[in-house]
Amino acid sequence: MDLTDRPRRLRTDGVRPLVSETSLDATDLMAPVFVDATTDERVPIESMPGHERVPVDEAVARVEEVLETGVEAIMVFGIPESKDSEGTRAWADDGVVQEAVRRITRETDAYVVTDVCLCEYTDHGHCGVLEPGARGDATLTVDNDATLDLLAEVARSHAEAGADMVAPSGMMDGMVGALRHELDASGHRDVPIMSYAAKYASAFYGPFRDAADGAPAFGDRRHYQMDPANRREAMREVRLDAEQGADALMVKPALPYLDIVRAVRESFDRPVAAYNVSGEYAMLHAAAEKGWLSLEETALESLLSIKRAGADLILTYFAEDVAEHL
Ligand code: PBG
Q: Rounded to 5 degrees, what are φ and ψ at 291?
């Protein structure tokens, strides 16, 4: 046997940590938090074991639980008390996210990011206001440019409530530019924008739509979210958002799209975020419940893989559980 190159030499317990190429830290993670204006007690989210929708009164307590694990950043999602065709509760001064953010930023040290979208606030569940499509009323579609004005209002109201960063997730063309313009004009020049830049029309969002009650009442999101088949198009989406001033660029979902995470990392000089979405969380839980996988190990391996692909930060429902084991 004449083997000079033996990679196994560097796999002993003593040396493995020294040659490890990727590490995962609690400060790389961001935890989603759901605040619900329709309830006055915590409601477990069935398809996302361990997660709950909490009333505004519990928002601070919920965030303190996150902080105790070592995770320092949260993404706030809101479930409003009522919905309408425009989603007006999304930019209300006394809206659920605005109220929660005011309290969280006053009473905790969490870094607070808000999801800027209309789908939880519109009665039809789409991410913007509707207009007749190419073939009339039977093919209603989201009116891109009218939606931009509303998204800008939402972002301004979040910033006014104290949000540290805003994250537009609606996949409208020009949304980053519209937000940047409105934030600058309203005195929030220093509030960064993390764009859901390459967000795919994914079936992995299923559990989230239960959690946030944001499933479209008809049709789907394929006319504004990206086709899972496309990689070049993701580069175009990300470039447009970078040009419009996005401070950080997100790819979503994460695990089925690690090639996109890697490609964005290599082509752009801004922080890359990856969203390890609800379905990625739910499937590991379901398998673990059956005794088929180790939840702790597969969660950790998933997050490590997302970092190895090139993500600087990860939004994940595993944030608290994994942080406690790091
Ligand atoms: C809102 C939004 C969605 C998610 C985050 N922001 C749902 C969607 O686009 O349908 C999904 C998050 C997840 O699945 O964990 N636009």
A: 80, 15
pLDDT, residue 13, reads 97
Structural domains of the chain in order of their starting residue, each with its CATH number: 22-323 (3.20.20.70)
Distance CA 60, CA 81 (A): 19
Q: What is the pLDDT of residue 312?
A: 98
**Pocket lining: 75 vs ligand 1, CB cutoff 6 Å:** no
Q: What is the C-alpha to C-alpha distance for residues 31 and 67, in angstroms, rounded to an integer?
A: 10
- Residue 199 annotated to the active site: yes
Whether the predicted pLDDT of 138 surpasses 80: no
Q: Is 76 in the pocket of ligand 1 (CB under 6 A)?
A: no
Q: Is the CB of residue 317 below 6 angstroms from any atom belonging to ligand 1? A: no
Structure tokens at 173: 């063309």
For residue 76, report the distance from its CA to the centre of ligand 1, in Å. Answer: 12
Q: What are the pLDDT digits (tens) for 287-308?
A: 999 999 999 999 999 999 999 9
* Spatial CA neighbour of 216 closest among 113, 81, 117, 115: 117
Concerning whether 252 is annotated as a catalytic residue, the answer is yes
Chain mean pLDDT for the chain:
96
Q: Please, which residues have CB within 8 angstroms of residue 168's CB and are 6 or more apart in sequence?
A: 116, 117, 151, 155, 175, 176, 179, 193, 195, 196
- The angle formed by the CA atoms of residues 45, 48 and 51, to the nearest 5 degrees, is 60
User: Is the minimum distance from the CB of 117 to ligand 1 under 6 angstroms?
Assistant: yes
Q: Which of 196, 208, 275, 281 to mutate to test the pocket of ligand 1 (most atoms within 8 A of CB)?
A: 208
Distance separating alpha carbons of residues 195 and 273, to the nearest angstrom: 9
pLDDT recorded at residue 176: 98
d(CA 43, CA 61) in angstroms, rounded, equals 14
Residue located via tokens 């313009």: 181
Question: For 147-164, how does the pLDDT look when each residue is reduced to its tens digit (9 = 90+)?
Answer: 999 999 999 999 999 999
Output phi, psi for 158, to 5 deg: -65, -45
261 neighbors 274 (Cβ within 8 angstroms): yes
| CA–CA separation, 113 and 87 (whole Å) | 20
